[in-house]
Structure formats: structure tokens, C-alpha cells
Amino acid sequence: RAPYATYTLSETPIRTKDGIAGYEGTITLTVFSTSIAAVDALIVRVIQAIDSKVLDGRKMYVADSEISDYPDIGLSSKDLTINVLK
Description:
Elements: E1 4-16, E2 19-33, H1 36-50, E3 53-55, E4 58-70, E5 75-85
Antiparallel strand pairs: 1-2, 2-5, 3-4, 4-5
């Protein structure tokens, strides 16, 4: 039942001569709701909560967003691309 969110995470190690110095990656967070206005309101709250903050040892930056509308099933969504550095 809307609203809800899904996510994927991909991380790759940052390799140096001395070994792994950390990790960089991307989180794709998709928020679904019943209207574009509702999705936008939720996305604003998500961005305020995570942009330029450290969560679980990961520094997060919102890099991009893309909106989709599915009127035939009554859902709208917005994908956030979040760059991660650990």
C-alpha cells in the first residue's frame, strides 16, 4: 500500500597501494505514492534527512532525481540517486 520506498545499493572499494582506503557507491531510492504532489512532499523530507549527512558511517549526497507517473495503476514515483562515500 502506498506510500512506500524501495532501494538498491552498489559499492566498490577505493584501492590504493596500501590497500582499501574506503568505499564509494550509489544508492537508488525510489519513493512511490498515489500522486506526484505526495511523492514530491516525501522526497523533500528524505532529502532533508540524508543529504550531506553521515548515516551508518556513509557520507551521502543526493546527485539526481527522476519522476515517473503510472496513472493506469494510480501510482507516481521518484528515483533519487544518492552518492555514498565510506
